[in-house]
Write a structure and sequence with these properties.
The complex is a heterodimer of chains A (248) and B (408).
Chain A (H helix, E strand, L loop, with lengths): L3 E14 L2 E14 L3 E5 L6 H8 L7 E6 L2 E2 L5 H11 E4 L11 H10 L6 H14 L15 H13 L5 E5 L7 H16 L4 E5 L2 H4 L4 E6 L2 E7 L6 H7 L7
Parallel strand pairs in A: 3-8, 3-9, 6-7, 7-8
Antiparallel strand pairs in A: 1-2, 1-4, 4-5, 9-10
Helix pairs in contact in A: 3-4, 3-5, 4-5, 5-6, 6-8
Chain B lengths: L1 H17 L1 H37 L5 E6 L3 E2 L2 E2 L10 H10 L3 E16 L2 E10 L3 H5 L3 E4 L4 H5 L4 E4 L1 H7 L10 E4 L2 E9 L14 E5 H9 L6 E6 L5 H15 L10 E5 H44 L1 H9 L4 H38 L7 H27 L3 H6 L2
Parallel strand pairs in B: 5-10, 7-9
Antiparallel strand pairs in B: 1-11, 1-12, 2-3, 4-5, 4-8, 4-11, 6-9, 7-10, 8-9
Helix pairs in contact in B: 1-11, 2-9, 2-11, 2-12, 3-8, 9-10, 9-11, 9-12, 11-12
The chains are: A alpha/beta (248), B alpha+beta (408).
Chain lengths: 248, 408
Amino acid sequence: MAKTIIKIDDLKREFRMGDEIVHALKGVSLDIYEGEFVTIMGSSGSGKSTMLNILGCLDSPTSGSYHIDGVSVDSLNRNELATIRNEKIGFIFQSYNLLPRTTAIENVELPLIYNNKISSEERHRRAVAALEMVGLGERLNHTPAQLSGGQQQRVAIARSLVNDPVIILADEATGNLDTRTSYEIMSLFQELNRKGKTIAFVTHEPDIAEFSGRTVILKDGHIIKDEINTDINDAARELAALPKEDHE
Amino acid sequence: MKTRILNLIKIALKAIVLNKMRTLLTMLGIIIGVASVIAMLAIGEGSKQSIRDEISSMGSNMINIRPGADMRGGVRMNPSEMQSLKLKDYEALKEEASLLAYVTPQVSGSGQSINGANNWPTSIYGVNPEYLDIKIWDLQDGSMFTNAEVRSAAKVAVIGQTVAENLFTNGEDPIGKMIRFNSIPFKIIGVLSEKGESNFGQDQDDVILAPYTTVQKRILAIDYIQTIVASAISEEDAQGAVDEISTILRKQHDISGNEDDDFNVFSMDELISTFSSTSEMLTVLLVAIASISLLIGGIGIMNIMYVSVKERTREIGLRMSVGAKGADILLQFLIEAILISVTGGLIGVILGFTATLFIKGVLGWPTIITSYSVIVSFLVCAVTGIFFGWYPARKASALDPITALRYE
C-alpha cells in the first residue's frame, strides 16, 4: 500500500456573501496516495478551486480535517501554513505567475529563498537541476519576456519542483496554452509522474484528464465521481500525432 | 535569521534596481530635504558663531552701568549729562559685589592730541588699571598706570595703536614721550596692542587711557562718573552679577519698592542674545522650511511604496504561495523603503556638504557644519523610511494570498 500524501475527511467550506452563506464544499472526503496523478474536474462553481486552495494550504476549511504527508494542518496558524507551503507543496498556476524582469534561475530559486535551511550554493544547484529537468538547462538567464508561454510554464514547473514537494498542485496549468504546447506540458507532467512525483491537476478539459491515472469530478460541492483511469493516454504519442506546424 | 535578512535585502535591492528612475525620483525629495537641512543649519550656526565671536572679543563678561531713566520735572535727560553715578557707587560695588571680578569707573572726553608738529583728534578714557582686564586687552609696550597713580591723579597715559601711529609718524618709540591732550600734558608710559575695529565699525585703537581721577579733574572738571564698567567672574554669573549690581545701586540711590531705577545695567550676554536671537529665529525658519521638504520627501516614499505594493500584489501572492511569511513580506517592503530613504539621506548629506562648501567659497558666508545636524537629519531619514514605509508594508503583509494571487 502506497503512502497517503493527502487525506481529507468530510471537508466543508462556507463563505459569507452579504447575508447569504455560500457552501462551496459540502463534505468532501478524498485520499491521494504517493505516486498518483489525479485530475480534479468540475465546471466553475463546483468547488474545485476552493478545494485546491485548501489542499494548497492557502485557505482553511470551515470544518473537517486535512492531513498532508501525515501532518494535520487544521490547527496551524498563518506562519505554520506558510512553512507547509514552502516545504511540502509545489504550485503551478494558469498564468504562470513568474516574476517579471527576473531570470528563470532566480524565479526557480524563489521558494528556497524563504527556506533558511538552504544555503545560496545549494539553492543555485537545485534550481539548475530543476530547470534541466524541464528541458530549460540552456535558458537559465532568460527573463519571462524572452520565453514563450510553454517555456514560461516550464519555468513555473521547475519552480514547483525545486523544493522537492510531496505533491504538485496545478491549477489549470494548460489553460493559457495552445493544444500542441498543452500536450508538451502534459507530457512533461507524465514524465515527472513516472519519476515518482505525486500530482493533483485541476482542469475542466476532459482530454487533459485522459492523461492522468485518476479523475475526481466535483459538482456543487460534492464529489460525484472518483475513478481510476485504466486507459491512460500518452501525451508524447498524441503530440507526435498532431499535424506538423511551421514551428519556430 | 541572518541569511533571511540578507535574502530580503537582496530582493529589496533588486526591486530598487529594476525601478531606477522611479527610485531616484522618490529619493530626490529626501536628498533635497537632508541637503537643505544641513546647509541651512550650517549657515545659521556659522552666523551665530561669528556674531558671538565678535561680541566676545569685546570682553565676554563685560557689564556696563550707565545713568538713565532719570526724570527731572518731566524732562528726560541725556544720559551722558546725568550725574546720578558717583564715585561712592563704584566704591560700593567694589566692596559689596561678590560676582564681579573687576570694576572701574569710566569718564571720557574727546579732544585734540598733539605731539610736536603732529596732532590727532581722539578720545580720552579715564579708568583704573582693571579696565584692561575687563576688556581683555594687553599692552604691546611699556606698562599700565598703577592704582597709586590713580590716587595721585598723575598725568600719565597709555595710548592706542591708531593714536601712536598718528602722533609718532617717523616710527620713534612713544614710551616716555610727552604729549598734550586739550593742552594738558601727559607722559606716555605704555602702548596698547592692536584691537581692531569693533563690529559696530568703531576703531577701538583710537583711544588714550588715563587715570579717571586725572580725566575728571584736569579735562572734564566733574566729580561724578559717567559709566561704571565691570566684568563678572564668569560668563554663567553674568546675569547674577547684573542683579547684584541693581540691588546694590538701588540701595545706594535710596530707590525703594517699585520706583524705577535711575541707572541702566547692560551685560554683553544681553547683547549676544539680542543678536543671536535674530539669527536663531532665521535658522529656525530655514530649518522649518527644510524640514517640510524632508516631510514631503517622506510622503513621496509612502506614495511610491503604496503604488509598489498595489502593483506587486500578485507578486506578493506568489511569494506567499511559495512559502513567504507575512513577516517576510513586511520586511521586504520595509527594507526597500529604508534603503531608499537611507541612500537618499547619504546622497543628501554629501550634497549638503557640497552646498555648504559652495556657500562658504563663493558667497563667503561663515558656515559651520555641526555633527548633530548631520546625525539628526540622517536619523530623521531612517525614521522617515520606517515610518512611511511601515503602513504600505504592513498592508502588503496582511494580504490574503488567494486574493493577492487573483488580483488583476
